[in-house]
Structure formats: structure tokens, C-alpha cells
Amino acid sequence: MKLLFLGDLVGRTGRTAVIDQLPAIVETQQLDFVVVNGENSASGFGITEAILQDVLDAGADVVTTGNHVWDQRDTLVYIERQDRLLRPLNYPAGTPGRGAHLYTARNGAQVMVANVMGRVYMDAMDDPFARIERVVDDCPLGQVADAIIIDMHAEATSEKQAMGHFLDGRVSLVVGTHTHVPTADHQILPGGTAYMSDAGMCGDYDSVLGMEKDEPVNRFQRKIPGNRFTPASGEATISGVAVETDDRTGLALRVAPVRIGGRLEPVLPSFWQS
Ligand SMILES: [Fe+2]
Ligand SMILES: [Fe+2]
């Protein structure tokens, strides 16, 4: 199967780049399944139901989130009827929505997607390792699921790497989100799981994490909040990771970064059509 995962959409520039360009990418590359992290797509904070629908209509099969999932208050309500929107799995019992789900891909295959949040330098959550293990045990790769994609939303690269190795051989892809900066450590781990510490953001990289840079620079210097954070509005770079999996085992055969447009050096997988 041909999978694509895109990192956090930040603001209007990030989401419109993906909404405008994803349909052609899906068509040209004959992608079977696409996951997009949407936690910053509404002015940098959360996601509205209208934006969710636009991203799904553009070709995303699932939209994941993270610590910003509830920034738009309506999300607590509409997430119950939107099973293609995931929030972190390791929120307390009774939290609205779901953190993992099994979906049918365009080619008829079964794809499990889970969204889990780290605990290092982030608000305390339930143990992400124990929670994800239960979900993966219930949906074995190569038996129930043809592919399994894990969005590990976390600050610390150590915790993300640990999750990669913890799940190695049991899932197709462990990819980090949340730092908004793409890493260059994409690889297939010894057990066959594709891994990348962070997918980067889909947003304007002339910024601080996708936000207009003046206010973040001011806060670091003065420690006094001045203005609100607003998303930077220059041309976005679409940033993520592409994976090809073995149809029989569900494990990764190839993994490569994807960067399109904006300020970062462009790169497309060698196994994509040019
Ligand atoms: Fe984010
Ligand atoms: Fe985040």
C-alpha cells in the first residue's frame, strides 16, 4: 500500500496548501491512504468541523490531533459524529471522541490509525505505551489490519524513538508530530516499522513554529505577553512522510520524506512518480 502522512497544518496558509494540492498528489501517486494532523488548522488553534470536512474532501482519510484538540470548543461535541477525526488515545476515560479506529482504504484494505500523546514536557496523560499496546494487540498487523499508522504527538525525541522501538514489527509507521520541525531520521527499524521523529508542519517556515515571529521573539526576550500569537501567512511548505508497505505483512518496504513548496528544500520520494 502507498501511505502518506502530513504533519500539523498551521493556519490558513498550511491548510489551503494541503486542501489545494492534496487531490492532485493522491491522484498522481495513486495513494491508498492519507493521514493529516490538523490540530493547528483553525488560526493555529484546534480544528473546526468545516475545516475538517474540507481536509477530508481534499483526500485525507483521517485527521489526527494532539494537545490543541479542544482549542475550538465545538470539537467536544462534533467529534462524537466524526469518526475520521482522532484525539489522543491516552486521555482519561469518558473523554469525547476516539483515539484509534479501523478504516477502509480506497483499495479496500483495512487501516488502523491511532493518535497518542507523549508525557515528557507535556501535560500528564495516561501511559501512552500501555494504552497503545492494548489497541495494537486487539488489531494485529497482517491479520485484522493491512496497515497500522501511529501519530505519536510528543515533545521529546527520546520518547518518540522509544515508542518506535516499542512498536517495531507490530505497526507500519510510527511518526512524530507536535514540534513542527521535520527531522531527517526517517528509516525502517529492524523489525520492519517505518519511523520518523517528526513529520514537520504544513505551514510557513519563516516563523516560530508557524506563528508570526515577532511575538514569540518578544516573549523570549521580555517574558511579558504582548500580542496574541497569529499564524504566519507566507507560502506554506507541505511536510510529511511517505511509506510503501508490504501487502501481505503490513510492514514497511520504503520510507521517505515529502516537502513541497515554501521555504524548505523540496524533496519527493524516489519511489513516487515524477
Ligand atoms: Fe502542532
Ligand atoms: Fe501539539
Short structural description:
By secondary structure, the protein is α/β, with parallel strands linked by helices. The chain has helices spanning 11-29, 49-57, 75-78, 128-138, 157-167, 214-222; strands spanning 2-6, 33-37, 62-64, 100-104, 110-117, 147-153, 173-177, 187-188, 194-196, 238-245, 252-260. It contains 6 helices and 11 strands.
Q: Would you mind describing this structure in some detail?
A:
There is one protein chain. The chain has a single domain, classed as Metallo-dependent phosphatases (Purple Acid Phosphatase, chain A, domain 2, 4-Layer Sandwich). Helices cover 23% and strands 22% of the residues. It is built from 6 helices and 11 strands. The protein has helices at residues 11-29, 49-57, 75-78, 128-138, 157-167, 214-222; strands at 2-6, 33-37, 62-64, 100-104, 110-117, 147-153, 173-177, 187-188, 194-196, 238-245, 252-260. It has a 6-stranded mixed β-sheet, covered by helices on one side. The protein has a 5-stranded mixed β-sheet with strand order 3-2-1-10-11. It is globular. It starts with a strand and ends in a 14-residue tail after the last strand. Bound molecules: fe (ii) ion (2 copies). The site of one fe (ii) ion (FE2) has 6 residues, from loops.
